Amino acid sequence: MLRHEHVNEALRRLAAELTELGASRMPTERALAERLETSRTTVRKALALLESAGTIRRVRGRSGGAYLTEVPARDAAPQAARPFCSGRGVLRSLNTVKGIPEILHEQGFRDGTTVLRSGLVHAQPRVREALGLLDDELVVSLLRLRHADGETLSLEQMYLRPELAGVLDTEMKSIYRTLRSRFGVQICVADESIEMATVPQAEGSMLGLLADTPVLKLERIGYDQFGRAREYSVDLFRADRTRLHVRSQSTVSAQRMCAPTPAG
């Protein structure tokens, strides 16, 4: 069978399988080309044939793609969404302030850390703002790759105030533990913002991901026991290996639950 015929047949089978599963769209051209070990031009021609046959409908633009046309109609059900994090993912609790090694140990994972870059650098404006630094002050910079059971989990860029430069003389694997034991600094409060982002090629290669793959982007400012900002970090977590958990509580309901019962 000729190469283009093989690709055509492979995409027809894939479209049929995805339709049966209730999926709404085909993978991207780039993903299909890598999966079939062929060029995007060949994939594009095969998709054109599927569109001519009425199997897919191609949409251009930022949110475009190849959408399947014969997906069985059903009532909307949010619980039918398939988790992006498959298998045994790492649970990242948003209720506590803990380092990644501690989180992994608690969940039975073998932790690993690769220090990619470390040193004192001139702080960028966002870092200066977060840590309350002057324009000419240096900042401790750590770029690390985290592993769970040997698999890449996250890429972390951490900045610390310059008076904590002594961490550069340590193994730099569990900074929170080092800050507690060697500097008497306890990161007690963390302000975190979380959003979905697409990973650039350089960072994606470190995480073992293709460019533009969705990741969880966490931006964090850590405060010590005296309320001073000591840490500013930007972390990229693999969305296929990370789950988030948060427990919320209404102040009103909590007060009612804790209120004493009137004597009868």
Structural summary, described in words:
The chain is an alpha+beta fold. It folds into two domains: 3-70, Winged helix-like DNA-binding domain superfamily/Winged helix DNA-binding domain (Arc Repressor Mutant, subunit A, Orthogonal Bundle), CATH 1.10.10; 90-245, Chorismate lyase. Helix content is 30%, strand content 30%. It is built from eight helices and ten strands. The strands form three sheets. Strands 4-5-6-9-8-7 form a six-stranded antiparallel β-sheet. The protein has a two-stranded antiparallel sheet with strand order 1-2. It has a two-stranded parallel ribbon with strand order 3-10. A hairpin with a 5-residue loop joins strand 8 and strand 9 (229-238). Helix 1 (3-21) packs across helix 3 (40-52) and helix 2 crosses helix 3 (40-52). The longest helix is centred in the first third of the chain and has 19 residues, at 3-21. The relative contact order is 0.12. The mean pLDDT is 88.
